[in-house]
UniProtKB/TrEMBL annotation:
Residues 30-338 form the Tryptophan synthase beta chain-like PALP domain. It comes from Gracilariopsis chorda. Its cofactor is pyridoxal 5'-phosphate. GO terms for molecular function: D-cysteine desulfhydrase activity. This is Putative D-cysteine desulfhydrase 1, mitochondrial.
Length: 362
């Protein structure tokens, strides 16, 4: 029996055969699949949402341990591409608590690749303040090289720095593979086109709507494209945790163009996007954090403050609007994209109930 993890030829799902010539050639199995789908009693945590809607949850927070979350599905294609091209190093980027950067670093170390991560932080001039909370702990334990930079845009700020590092590593005889923010390019998008096939085997046609957080665009784009190619059995909704709906519609249109689908469909025809970034990316309101605690205490589901909690907050806000497209939903499937390690960055601590811990006295 062969237990070696290496790229193998990728066969596209039947519904995607007409765009198979755009698909990645290889994939490497890195995640625990299929992830479960089960009922979710969200009404117990939020009693004032419409009682006629049933909620279910797709547990992509259970795709692995150190690699848990949605990012690993994209990395199965991206890392396979890197290895197939003979790369020995990966370079990626994200926010200081980036789930994608953490998952990339873990996979790189598991497969014997060198890893470099660029992390955006206002404390970029003070690496001693980086600490070791949340996803940062993984970088420290893995021993990956972390490059701190001030908060800048990806294309104009981060990408040039990543390319410069790639050139420096090449001068040392290394072959580095660049992975953009969230792994959300024309290769990474296949992670959730492929995942839609998994959903079809799990009875996705029984639901009316799918809701997911959108932070870099790859997961929402993959689900929307997969749903479109499969005949649109459900409606797909994305809730932004950063940027604007216009930005993510633009990203989806870019993916459609790279898959040869732009002449037959537009992003707004296959994906509904609503905004819920609140105070901004990775910044939480008191109301959001309290909602997260209500949900964990009532349902046992942990939502991270950067992605899934904002998405649920936005979804609930939409459901309370009379004219929202979500209001006609009957059976909503929420895709939990992980990020649980973000809960350990300390922001939730002031909201915890200290009275629940007592000295035992019979």
């Amino acid at each position: 029996m062969n237990f070696t993890r290496a790229p193998s030829p990728y066969k596209v799902p039947p519904f995607a055969e007409r765009i198979a010539h755009f698909a990645p050639a290889t994939k490497i199995n890195l995640s625990m699949r299929p992830t479960p789908v089960h009922t979710w009693n969200l009404h117990s945590a939020v009693p004032d949402i419409p009682p006629d809607i049933q909620f279910y949850i797709k547990r992509d927070d259970m795709t692995g341990a150190g690699t848990s979350g949605n990012k690993i599905r994209k990395l199965e294609f991206l890392i396979a591409d890197a290895i197939s091209k003979g790369c020995d190093t990966v370079i990626t980027a994200g926010g200081v608590q980036s789930n994608h950067a953490r998952a990339t670093a873990v996979v790189a170390k598991e497969l014997g690749l060198e890893a470099h991560v660029f992390l955006r932080t206002r404390e970029h001039e003070h690496p001693e303040k980086l600490g070791s909370k949340g996803n940062v702990l993984f970088h420290r334990m893995l021993g990956v090289q972390v490059h701190l930079v001030r908060p800048v845009s990806y294309l104009a700020g981060l990408l040039p720095k990543m390319r410069l590092l790639q050139e420096k590593l090449a001068a040392e005889g290394k072959n580095a593979y660049l992975i953009g923010i969230g792994g959300s390019n024309e290769i990474g998008v296949w992670g959730y086109i492929d995942a839609f096939n998994e959903l079809l085997t799990q009875g996705v046609r029984e639901f009316t709507d799918i809701v997911v957080a959108v932070g870099s665009g790859g997961t929402a784009s993959g689900l929307a494209i997969g749903n479109y190619l499969a005949g649109r059995p459900v409606r797909v909704h994305a809730v932004t945790v950063c940027d604007t709906p216009a930005y993510f519609y633009g990203h989806l249109n870019e993916m459609l163009a790279k898959l040869g689908l732009d002449q037959e469909v537009d992003a707004q025809d296959i994906l509904h996007i609503t905004e819920a970034k609140g105070l901004g990316y990775a910044r939480s309101t008191e109301e959001e954090l309290e909602l997260g605690l209500q949900i964990s205490r009532s349902t046992g589901i942990m939502l991270d403050p950067v992605y899934t909690l904002k998405a649920i907050y936005g979804m609930i806000s939409e459901l309370k609007k009379g004219k929202s497209p979500l209001r006609s939903s009957r059976r909503i499937l929420f895709v939990h994209t992980g990020g649980v390690f973000g809960l350990f960055d300390g922001r939730i601590e002031p909201h915890l109930d200290s009275s629940l811990a007592r000295t035992w006295r019979p």
